[in-house]
Specification:
about 70% helix, 11 helices, mainly alpha, globular
Amino acid sequence: MQKATREQFFRGLKAGVPVMFGFIPVAIAYALSARQAGFSAPETILMSLMVYAGASQMMAVGMLSTGSAMGPIVLATFLLNLRHFIMSTYVMRELPEKTRLLSAFCITDEGFAVFSAQKDENRTMPFFAGLAVITYLSWVGGTAIGAFASGLIPQTLLNSFNIALYAMFIALLAPGLPGKPK
């Protein structure tokens, strides 16, 4: 790996750290809800590996637990994720054509926010790859933690996971805010 490519990749990893700290508790919360809905630990993790869309996963678990059929779940997931078409269009124009299909899988709201806030010289494939690696692994890792520790986490701690997503958005937005008001 060339030095500039490696540096861009590690910049992407570093930029994804705030997202990682938000994804892990939210992924744990998803896993706990999936386990409570009757999913096995492998099914819960497989869903995160294949879907990688927290809101859709939460919605699908809720719909499955109430006995919904697959058709309405797929339609609801499609509608919920329409925003990714817009985000993908922006990100994909910055990335090489041969990497776009794989990269599209890695677009999340948080990853889009981090990537689009970068200076032009950081909007590269290696940067995006670093960002995608840390966010994807933190989502799947958090899911695994929640799936296997579902019976060990006290209810008080479980309740606190609900604010993790809001805290993550604040952490992502805060660095971009203008200086202190006069």
